[in-house]
């Protein structure tokens, strides 16, 4: 009987130990799943933010280069009799410090095979002495380099026929057909064919058509192209490394098959996790580029991805400890009560620790929500929050028969500040502009940063159009005050487009109208506002 009772207690104690191990393992695994899911969600949100910012950075860089080429095309088209010294004067302020990755700026003219001698004589007489044109055999249409400003130590290609290569030819044809910036497919520049293969970079050509007679009553006449060959790695890698903050590897490639890789920014050890890989397609110069972003070990370390494994190890250790304690407790009732108290205290500590982990995860979720709806540089609302507030304001004001005004603000002179004082100075200017916009508006109004040097303002509860105009005048005045940047003064102004909501106002339509009015203000001389429909 005694032996039977002892065996029964032994079996009961063993069953209790097994039950504790099974239960502890289940709880530990559940906690691991919760923490791991939170870590995955946080890392994914961080990668989404990097992907969006880097796609915008690539687009902004191409836009800045395109604006420079369009300005050059306009300046050259304004010459009644362009000569070599005119071209040298117009391009004198350009170099590699302003146009990273650019090899040169060239003026390209079209010609037929029969007209090649006349073209050669014409440009020799206008300063391109010694010009020798080399038409591509087998082609009737040619595109000759007649004027060039070189930014590096590479050899000049004056006289070369760009029609010998399909990639630049494609960019020239698209630019002429559409009358705007076009970018070629990736290829090796003619001037780089003489360097070792390992030193060559995948490159593209930016092309903008040149017309005479623009802005006048004279007919618009196509004269040629402004062309800028750009080496991909030198062009984008510094920007991608800066914006990626060493946390991600970025690859920019043609969005075609097979894709040609333009540039790669690889700051550290790559983490092979396809679930965190992000891809964004950007349309630049009438081409599609694929931006691929992958995490590095630095990003994984910064997002505390090891917390799940720590939770699993801690839970397993705790479960094993509880199993041992339960086995010991089964041997003596007196010791069991004491051991139960100790196990209960340890369990409470574990619960508190898990509660702290959950609280940290909740704090991170709140921070991610803030990052998702606010611009990280200025703290202003971003596009998503701006669009939500505009949609809500239009709906509520339509019911109350009140007006909503939308102001699009684009900074004048911001590019010059960046070029003269650097990007950090540009960031200081953007933060100062954001602070001035916040101070100058009512609490019910919304100010957002759209990206780059563009801002947007929602004015709610207006009774008449003059209220929006007065706000625009106050913004113009506030932004003209000089901005101190480490002892240097930076000055910017603003071009503002105003649109007022109608009875059936639509958010997308208002945004397009305000954007168009802003461009009208910029083309009218800048530092002013234009009201849509006025």
Automatic annotation (TrEMBL):
Domain of life here? Bacteria
Q: Which UniProt keywords apply?
A: Membrane, Transmembrane, Transmembrane helix
Q: Which InterPro entries match?
A: CHASE_dom, CHASE_sf, DGC-Regulatory_Protein, GGDEF_dom, Nucleotide_cyclase, Rev_trsase/Diguanyl_cyclase
Mind telling me which Pfam families this protein's record contains?
CHASE, GGDEF
Q: Chief localization class?
A: membrane
Domain (GGDEF) ranges: 402-534
Name it.
GGDEF domain-containing protein
């Amino acid at each position: 009987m005694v032996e039977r009772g002892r065996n029964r207690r032994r079996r009961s104690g063993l069953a209790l130990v097994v039950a504790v191990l099974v239960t502890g393992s289940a709880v530990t695994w559940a906690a691991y799943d919760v923490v791991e899911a939170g870590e995955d969600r946080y890392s994914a949100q961080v990668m989404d933010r990097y992907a969006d910012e880097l796609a915008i950075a690539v687009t902004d860089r191409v836009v800045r280069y395109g604006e420079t080429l369009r300005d050059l095309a306009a300046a050259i088209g304004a010459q009644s009799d362009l000569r070599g010294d005119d071209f040298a004067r117009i391009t004198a302020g350009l170099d590699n410090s302003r146009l990273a990755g650019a090899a040169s700026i060239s003026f390209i003219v079209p010609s037929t095979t029969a007209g090649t001698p006349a073209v050669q004589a014409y440009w020799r007489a206008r300063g391109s002495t010694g010009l020798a044109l080399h038409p591509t055999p087998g082609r009737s249409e040619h595109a000759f380099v007649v004027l060039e400003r070189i930014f590096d130590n590479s050899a000049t290609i004056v006289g070369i026929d760009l029609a010998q290569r399909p990639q630049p030819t494609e960019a020239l044809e698209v630019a002429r057909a559409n009358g705007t910036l076009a970018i070629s497919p990736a290829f090796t520049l003619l001037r780089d064919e003489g360097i070792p293969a390992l030193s060559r970079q995948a490159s593209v050509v930016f092309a903008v058509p040149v017309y005479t007679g623009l802005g006048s009553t004279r007919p618009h006449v196509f004269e040629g192209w402004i062309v800028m060959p750009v080496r991909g790695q030198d062009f984008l890698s510094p920007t991608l490394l800066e914006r990626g903050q060493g946390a991600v590897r970025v690859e920019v490639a043609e969005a075609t098959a097979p894709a040609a890789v333009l540039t790669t920014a690889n700051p550290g050890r790559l983490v092979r996790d396809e679930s965190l890989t992000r891809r964004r397609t950007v349309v630049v110069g009438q081409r599609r580029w694929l931006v691929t972003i992958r995490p590095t070990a630095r990003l994984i370390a910064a997002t505390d991805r090891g917390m799940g494994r720590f939770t699993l190890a801690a839970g397993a250790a705790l479960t094993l400890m509880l199993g041992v304690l339960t086995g010991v407790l089964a041997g003596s009732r007196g010791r069991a009560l004491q051991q139960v108290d100790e196990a209960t205290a340890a369990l409470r500590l574990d619960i508190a620790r898990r509660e702290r982990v959950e609280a940290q995860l909740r704090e991170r979720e709140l921070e991610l929500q803030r990052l998702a709806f606010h611009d990280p540089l200025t703290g202003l609302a971003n596009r998503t929050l701006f669009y939500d507030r505009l949609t809500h304001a239009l709906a509520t004001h339509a019911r109350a028969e009140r007006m909503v005004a939308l102001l699009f603000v684009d900074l004048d002179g911001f590019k010059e500040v960046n070029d003269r004082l650097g990007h950090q100075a540009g960031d200081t200017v953007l933060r100062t502009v954001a602070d001035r916009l916040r101070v100058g508006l009512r609490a019910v109004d919304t100010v957002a940063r759209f990206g780059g040097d563009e801002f947007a303002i929602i004015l709610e509860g207006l009774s008449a159009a003059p209220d929006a105009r007065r706000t625009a005048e106050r913004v113009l005045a506030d932004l003209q005050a000089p901005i101190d940047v480490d002892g240097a003064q930076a000055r910017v102004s603003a071009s503002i487009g105003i649109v007022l909501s109608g009875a059936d106002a639509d958010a997308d339509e208002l945004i397009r109208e305000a954007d168009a009015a802003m461009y009208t203000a910029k083309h009218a001389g800048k530092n002013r506002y234009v009201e849509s429909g006025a």
